[in-house]
Design goal:
heterodimer, A: about 250 residues, alpha/beta, Rossmann fold, 6-stranded mixed beta sheet, 9 helices, about 35% helix, globular, B: about 130 residues, mainly alpha, Arc Repressor Mutant, subunit A, 3-stranded antiparallel beta sheet, 6 helices, elongated, DNA-binding (chain B), DNA binding (chain B), WH-like_DNA-bd_sf (chain B), WH_DNA-bd_sf (chain B)
Chain lengths: ~250, ~130
């Protein structure tokens, strides 16, 4: 397919550059003899939705965990909102792990109380609104829920914090394709303009029109990064196709 | 609206927003919906909408008022000029395809006259144009 848009002014391509909200330099993480992150450099500005793409085991989850301040055994420099990983950076970061850390037997209501106790910036009313919006009942126990329903609860909890940086590890992978758009809409609708969202996913197609920029990883390194619209113009193809192409080469 | 994900989204938004203005869907002088509202309606990134609106502003199709928001221009001549520009793009598309089918100008003109009152030609499709997915 090809489009014939009106002629464009290429100099409009640059957006106002913000100070980096997340900055990573020479980040290396080793699990025994295996290198999960290999001398990685990355800068993420504020107010962006960034896709983190790559095959399983490429280091996406390790990067998110390190940014979330949950993994201290690394070398290199990591700054979130100007702070090294620790209590002050953690206060700015809302992290949604790929595996639930919530106990199985509890009710949704208990999770709301738990988050309210744990995080000073947790907006209980916003979380309840999202959960209701997903058609879920607060009196349900997590173990009674499907994988997709649990993911909706976790997304609601994660997005209800007034954080600067949201780190979501495969937030929609357990949800059937028809329901993914609804979850994405709610994630984006609840993102404050000055906050950034870094979302690790293998579902490139579902995020095609919502991402500002993309970071494609392989073997613990950044293989390709850039503004998605600029990459489309440069390659003349969709992000999905670009992703397949760079991975094949 | 369906996007061609193989081309920059912001450029497609410029075309779509221009279409809304020339068709009067966004009336001259009226307030344009907010960035987040448009992003949510179209299922795209707010920064992409922002970029498209900035381009619209550069082309004199809208103006920003610091607190009140963005407004469609009241300059009807400017709107007419953009309508002509969009019509040129659509005409060029048609001519390219007609030539590709080996048609001569007289045949193409005759075809347009014949088809003008036939079939379902919803105005929006014509103005949008440009999708070669036939």
């Amino acid at each position: 397919m090809a489009t014939t848009p009106l002629p464009m002014a290429p100099e409009e391509a640059t957006m106002t550059s913000e100070h980096a909200l997340v900055s990573v330099r020479g980040l290396t993480v080793r699990y025994g003899t295996r290198t999960a992150l290999d001398d990685l450099d990355l800068e993420l500005p504020a107010g962006r939705i960034i896709g983190l793409l790559g095959e399983n085991g490429c280091g996406k989850s390790t990067l998110l965990k390190t940014l979330a301040g949950l993994y201290a055994d690394y070398t290199g420099e990591v700054r979130v909102g100007g702070h090294a990983p620790g209590p002050r950076s953690k206060a700015l970061v809302s992290y949604l792990p790929d595996r639930s850390s919530l106990p199985d037997h509890v009710r949704v209501r208990y999770c709301l109380d738990l988050f309210s106790d744990m995080f000073a910036d947790f907006d209980t009313a916003k979380a309840r609104e999202m959960i209701a919006g997903f058609g879920l009942d607060e009196s349900m126990r997590l173990k009674e829920m499907s994988k997709g329903m649990r993911e909706k609860v976790q997304v609601s909890l994660a997005m209800a914090r007034r954080a600067r940086v949201f780190l979501l590890d495969e937030p929609i992978s357990g949800v059937d394709p028809a329901a993914r758009d609804g979850i994405l809409d709610r994630i984006l609708g609840n993102l404050e303009p000055g906050s950034s969202l870094l979302v690790a996913t293998h579902l490139v197609h579902d995020l095609e029109t919502t991402l500002d920029s993309v970071v494609i990883m392989r073997h613990g390194k950044v293989l390709l990064e850039g503004e998605v619209d600029d990459l489309r113009a440069e390659h003349g193809s969709s992000l999905d196709q670009i992703f397949r192409k760079v991975y094949r080469s | 609206m369906e996007f061609d994900t193989g081309a920059p989204i912001w450029g497609q938004l410029v075309t779509e927003f221009s279409r809304r203005i020339v068709t009067g869907e966004w009336a001259a002088g009226s307030r344009i919906p907010g960035v987040r509202e448009l992003a949510s309606e179209l299922g795209v990134n707010p920064n992409t909408v922002q970029r498209a609106l900035a381009e619209l502003e550069r082309r004199g199709l809208c103006r920003s008022e610091r607190t009140a928001g963005r407004f469609v221009t009241s300059d009807e001549e400017r709107i007419d000029a953009i309508r002509a520009e969009l019509a040129h793009v659509a005409a060029d598309d048609f001519i390219r395809r007609a030539r590709g089918l080996g048609m001569r100008p007289a045949q193409a003109l005759h075809l347009i006259e014949e088809r003008w009152t036939h079939g379902d030609h919803t105005p929006a499709d014509g103005a949008r144009g440009g999708h070669d997915d036939v």
